[in-house]
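Supplementary notes for students who missed Thursday's class. We covered one full example, reproduced here. Read the sequence, then the structure, then the short commentary at the end.
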Amino acid sequence: MTEIDRRPPPTSVVAATVLALLSVLACAAASAQGALAATVGLLAFLVGVVRGSRRALTWAVVLYAAGFVVAGLSGADPAPLVAAAVALALAWDAADHALSLGEHVGRDARSRRNQFVHAGTNGLVGLLTGGVAYGTYVAATGGQPVAALVFLLLGAVAVVTAFR
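Structure (token representation):
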């Protein structure tokens, strides 16, 4: 009897990596300084998803968030930042799901349909939530930037909550 390979399935690894890269690119569209921290986060993300380390994924998200904060403080346009946050949330969720699949059923299990359904439904939730967050920002920018920031952060919290 052969031992089960507990690494994450390659389909989810590729999907998570592409989404993480899209997050860096969206952050770079907003701010070069923010993109630097997000790029370091991408490297940590790659280590986490390839090695199957949840700790590395957590640190990657922290580094990404630092990049988003730097970009926001530098006066970046919020549209690419919302796109970057949604892409990061989707990447993190895809990576976490890949790690869980690897742990529970193994790398070679027939789980592609599960991966595609999971990614598709979360993509839809992410797009809707990101749209609501950005729409709230646009509606609140009538001279109230602090309120807009609060609503944008609440939208980000809603994105993360939707995935859990």
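Commentary. The CA atoms of residues 11 and 112 lie 7 Å apart. The two ends are 36 Å apart (CA to CA). If anything here is unclear, bring it to office hours.
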